[in-house]
């Protein structure tokens, strides 16, 4: 007698959470996800322990025991970093869409329902969501007043297939992080994160956008992003400095290779993105010494062949007078105004 083989339906969404030393935050993160996904069999939730040294993973295991069959747990025997953790998680994901969520952040109410509606109605390759900033570095009164941050200039709430608008809107908002971009799994598979480096979200952006054909911006905050003292940007050491410069160069090379790179809107937006990045570096470079100043000057020559004043002039043409003034002041103080 022949027996028919039955297969579980493919999940429509994989939520992937790397975990490393987030004892104070993993509970609220999981609460926010499970509150919206526990009753949906079409969502798989996969977590990976990147060799945490605190009780983060013990908390995850306790959640898994309270929600049997809902959490899939993976482990790295040694700490390999965020990029490696995300890459491992992706190889185990089976959902049509993939959403990377950092374990110190949270999903806001209605996020999964909003995503589900867009996916079922329109099936875009890429969905961009806005977020709320929770700043733990500020006093409690300021922290309660969380700010909404846009990740794209729009248009919003409609399915688009215009790569010029996609790139220019993303670069102008300067929000490259992976957790605000929910994409079909093959798109993320085409954009593996560079292991052993910081600022991996910037480096993979060209690969992700190169395979995106349709996209949607929600103009709705779905993620609560937590900024705290141990965040990557809180202390820009030598390793992070090197990696940020490298990520900026990879972004320049990758986006410049795209067919729409020569479009004025894309070219100006990329120049603006890089201008803001090097303004941030200009503030830090004095604390790191002359070798890092030399590295930045070389990178500036490659990224701004027409000089940094050209990018500042674009800000003025857009009416961004204060941004232009701040950029000119920071670059002049570092001796990078060319």
Automatic annotation (TrEMBL):
Organism: Thermomonas hydrothermalis
GO molecular function terms listed in the Swiss-Prot or TrEMBL record: hexosyltransferase activity
Start and end residues of each stretch annotated as Disordered: 139-158
Classification via SUPFAM superfamilies: Nucleotide-diphospho-sugar transferases
Ranges of residues in domain Glycosyltransferase 2-like: 14-144
Domain of life of the native organism: Bacteria
UniProt entry keywords in alphabetical sequence: Transferase
A Pfam cross-reference name: Glycos_transf_2
Protein name: Glycosyltransferase involved in cell wall bisynthesis
